[in-house]
Give the backbone structure.
Amino acid sequence: MKLIKLLLICVAMGAGASAMAQWQWIDKDGRKVFSDRPPGLDVPDKNILKRPKGYGGVPGAKTSGTGPALRDVAAPEEGEAPAEGAAQAAKPTAKVASGKDKELEAKKAAEDKAKADADKAAKEKQAAAKADNCKRAQQAKAMYDTGKAIRAPNEKGEMVFQNAEQRAAEIKRTDEAIFNNC
């Protein structure tokens, strides 16, 4: 008795699985589309990647179950307007029609804006540091231009007066800093 109940449950679950049939195709923009509805007639069969079981792959064919017909809407004759039902059946859902998810687009736009803001902040910080380096280099240059003796720490950390070579090297370094930052 338990075996029969288990078997019935398995059969019932198998019938539910066919209701979750999925279609996959590549739309006109080259994006993969996943849907539980068949693609519109504007999608060629070569672009359909996956069909649900029971679909023979022939346009106009029906599923093997009691479900609705898939891609069974005939194209209108030349000069004839499409029937209202045909127009509705040929249109996939709004999410699939655009090929994009509005929430995903919004999230991507927010990430792009955050990245742009971070780049802008980094550039502003770099510009501020460059301006500060320029100001310091100009102050050091002005100090060396006075001709006064300058004291600087030596290897031992003792403050000693700079000799002519050290002074010339520091003037050259400040000139390069002014050239690069100002």
Summary: Residues 94 and 100 are 9 Å apart (CA to CA). Residues 103-181 form one domain.
